[in-house]
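Crash report, auto-generated. Payload:
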Amino acid sequence: MRRYVVGRLLLMIPTLVGVAVITFVVMRAVPGDIVALRYAGSSVPQDIIDQERHILGLDKPIWVQFIDWMAQLARFDLGQSLWTGHSVIDEVQVRLPLSLELAVIATVLAVIIALPLGILAAVRQDTWVDYAIRIFSVGGLAMPSFWIGIMLVLGTITFLDWAPPLVYTSFFEDPVANLSQLVLPAISVGYRYSAVSMRMTRSTLLEVLREDYVRTARAKGLRETAVVVRHALRNALLPVITVVSLEFAFLIGGLVVTEQVFNLNGIGKLLVDAVAHRDYTLIQALVLLLSAVFVLVNFAVDMIYVAIDPRIRYS
Amino acid sequence: MTSERGAVTRDGDAEALARRRYLESTPRKRFFRFWREFIRRRPLGAFGLFLVILMLLAALLADRIAPYDPTALSFKDLLAPPSPEHLLGTDNFGRDVFSRVLYGARTALLVGFGASVVGCTLGLVLGVIGAYVGGTWDQLIQRLMDVLLSFPLIVIAIAVVAALGTGEGLIGNVIAAITVPIIPRVSRVVRSSALSVVQMPYIEATRSVGTGAVRIMFRHVAPNVFAPYLIMMTAFLGQAILLEASLSFLGLGVFEPTPSWGLMLRGAGMQFLERAPWLAIAPGIAISLAVFGFNLFGDSLRDALDPRLRTA
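Recovered output after restart:
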């Protein structure tokens, strides 16, 4: 087992290097670099533009730039943002707590809604309860999260005469202000998230409920709740955990639009800005960071499998 | 089990009857029977189909039903609330919101169909090639797809838009941006279905007759993975419409004066949220109903065509 864990962790390195290479190549294939964008439309003489490129190191051949970057990475140095000049670590440090906190709240919310409703829909398959829950969940997939956000703000303004604060406060400074800013975005994202998890819970549970051992459990006279929760649900949980975890990984970098609605300065917004500015170092670092999160979450899921399912063993 | 005449028969007879009915039927009859059964047995799917048809009609007949020109400015009724004259009110340029919602269906469907048809078809091609050719090429395609899969749809779409550029009349770029993240998701599902098709004896038989690889892949393998292909296409239609709305909302999608639901939410919808809430409510409901319809329809189609497939 230990060898397996070490092996998996080591295998992350080539994966991340692959991601690094692809992002590097793709971003340089995009027309227009940061200098061209900064001086677009203005009459700055060519030698100043060339000078700027030289300062940023963009005039070197691409393969030299790539080797430089790889050498930096090997020293765990992510470099500086080309746009702001701050180190990438600083840029990320400002935004990560917010993105992480929002992702955690949304996940908790989604699981609290998804599990009971998913179970109920599966147990009452093809009744009006099932239909109502399914419509609720398809609705979650259909409504754009950012629109739900707008409607929530509209609702609280009209009916409660309250709007979420526009400036971010850390949870440790002022928990109330912090949560009152994040609760609406968490709901608007969490609804979609819960819909995805709910559908997974329902469909895997339906499959498991047809297994022989569930019939056996019923036949030996167990109460229905015990059959569903102790025998069926535990076996249906693995795919649900996968879906929940992958969504969590996506939430950290993928909340671009919702962050826009609530004026939140998160990782998603940072990434979009970086792409718009052709801020190569920042894009490369963020992409690496997000794929590292993704790979680590995948790894964590496999470890959770081992912990909760004794049949699964890696060697 | 009872047959149509009411006599009690064994399962074998029922099967024989079903087979005879199938052989006697024409493709046309089978087509109609499939949809009759679909509507009767899947009320949610039928409701989805109804919404889809409603949206298609709105898009096709927009120039007939729309009471006003969607781009006509009218400075005497700015931000007018809903009234018999303007069913859903007007925006900050005095443009009729109802007309803009109708025309927005055109943009949504154009981008939705464009992106999901192209994306699913490219995914089908890559998936079938990967499954049939195997080896290094398969590995190469798969790793590339893995990288694309490790990002949220919207992030990849934004990167592609940034690469291709946005602006007025560049709707093709928006379609391309939404196409790219669809490809890996389809190719993975298609590949796994195609892998079992490739093992079939008739493929080997075709090869032994000397049929070329390209012909085998697209005349013999591809038609047999058509069910997942169709299902993914309806599923991604809704996703594509959502993505178009999100991109336009961010200012990276469709540009003014093209009416787009996401774009309607972007500017005035946010700015005049309190004074003119209809600006934000109407296009949002349009997006939700459209995606809701396609999702319900796609779900039921999946259950009807291939219940083993599960798309989260």
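Post-recovery validation: Chain A touches chain B through 47 residues (CB under 8 Å).
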